[in-house]
Amino acid sequence: MENLNKIDEIMKGFVEEFCYEKANSMFLNISSGKKLRSKLILKIAGVSDESLKLCAVIEMIHAASLLHDDVIDESDTRRGKSSINATYGSKNAIMLGDILYSKGYFELSLFDKFIARNVSAAVSLLSIGELMDIELSKKFNSNKSLYFEMIYKKTAVLIEASAKCAAFLKGYDADKFAKYGRNLGIAFQIVDDILDIVSDDETLGKPALSDYKDGKTTLPYIYLYENLNDKDKKTLLSYFKKELSSDEILWVKDKFNEFKIIEKCVNEAKFIANEGIEAIEKYKNNELIDIMKNMVDRKF
C-alpha cells in the first residue's frame, strides 16, 4: 500500500507542475483504482525510483483513457464514484485526459527508448481498441475473433507493455513477460464480462447485464448466440441495447444456465491464464502466479 501511495504522490506532483488549480482539483477527484499495472511492474522489476516513476506514467495514461472512455460511454460513475464527466462536464473531462496523456508522454520520453517505444505503441493500439469498441457496439457482434482483437487492444495491450517494460528494467526475457501480461489482460476482461452477468447490482455498482444494454457483445453473449435456435436468437437480438425487464433478464440468465455458457467462459479464461503462467515458469515468481490465479479461480 505504501508504494501505491507513492505512485499517487508522483502523479499528483506531475499535475501540480502545471500550477493550475482546476486541473489539480479535478485530478484529485479521479477514483483511484486497484493499480493492477503498477502492482505488476513492482512485482517484476522491484521497487526503485525508476520503477515507481514508470508506474506513475502508466497509471496517468490509463487514467486518461478512462476519462475519455467515460465521456464516450456517457458514464455517470467510475469505480462507485461520480465520474469526472458527470461532475465537471464532458469538455473538462476530455481536457483533463489530454493533460494526463501529454504529461505522461513527456515523462515517458525521459526513459530508455525501449520503454518509450513499447508504451507509446501500446497506447496507440489502446486508442484503436476504443474505436473498435465503439464500432462493434453499433450492432450485435457474433464474431469471436473481433471480440478478442478488441479486448486485446482496449484492455490487455497496456498490461502487456507494463509487464514487458518491467522485465526490461530487471534484465529478464521481455517477450515472455509480455505474454504473461497479455494473457492476464485478456483473462481479466473475460472475467469482468462474466461478472457483469453473474454479480448483483450492489457488487457491480451498476445494473446487471448493463454491458449488453450498452451495446457490448461480450464473450458470453457470443457463445450463447451460437447455441440458441433461430427463434431464441431473434429474441436475444431484440434485447440488444435495450433496458430489460425483470422477466427478460431472467430469460437471458436461464439461457446462460441452460447451455452452461458461464462455465465455458470461465474455462476459457483459465486456459488463457495458465498459458500466461507457463510463459514465465522458469522465473518462479509466485506473486505473479497468484495474481493470475486469483483472477480466475473464484466463485462465479
UniProtKB/TrEMBL annotation:
It holds the Pfam family polyprenyl_synt. GO terms for biological process: isoprenoid biosynthetic process. Its cofactor is Mg(2+). Keywords: Magnesium, Metal-binding, Transferase. Signal peptide: none annotated. GO terms for molecular function: metal ion binding; prenyltransferase activity. Belongs to the FPP/GGPP synthase family. This is Octaprenyl-diphosphate synthase. It comes from Campylobacter ureolyticus ACS-301-V-Sch3b. The lineage of its organism: Bacteria, Pseudomonadati, Campylobacterota, Epsilonproteobacteria, Campylobacterales.
